[in-house]
Design a protein that fits this description.
Elements (H helix, E strand, L loop, with lengths): L1 E2 L2 H20 L2 H16 L6 H10 L10 E2 L1 H22 L3 H21 L3 H21 L4
Antiparallel strand pairs: 1-2
Protein name: DUF4395 domain-containing protein
Pfam families: DUF4395 (PF14340)
InterPro entries: DUF4395, UCP030042
Amino acid sequence: MQVDPRGPRFAALVTTVVLVAVLVTGSWALLAAQAVVFAIATFLGLRYAPYGLVFKVLVRPRLAPPGELEDAAPPRFAQGVGLVFALVGTAGYATGTTWLGIGATALALAAAFLNAVFGFCLGCEMYLLIRRFTAKKDRSERKVPA
């Protein structure tokens, strides 16, 4: 599946705002809601992600067509990484381990901010590195010694 790259950046912008609100309020419920958003994008796909739907209905019709589309797999993987951090942060806040909640939320915020402001998707880059590493490993395992 191909996606308009502006959609994940829009989602990162909304995520940035939500995660700042979590850090300001310390609300584990708000972070849990963000975890649900990440889970939907990860397990059902970007086309069902709540922020993606907002982008599709309200933002994209007002923009020129995208110059190019990108593979949905890297941003979907990035949503999974965000899910892990949101779950850890939620657990931290909910159990009173506030430092864990703050730390996990801050790391997720840093990644979302990089994508929203600079278009640098940290989770996407992780995905591509993992793919390169596993592809090299597969090629080396297929070589038959002489």
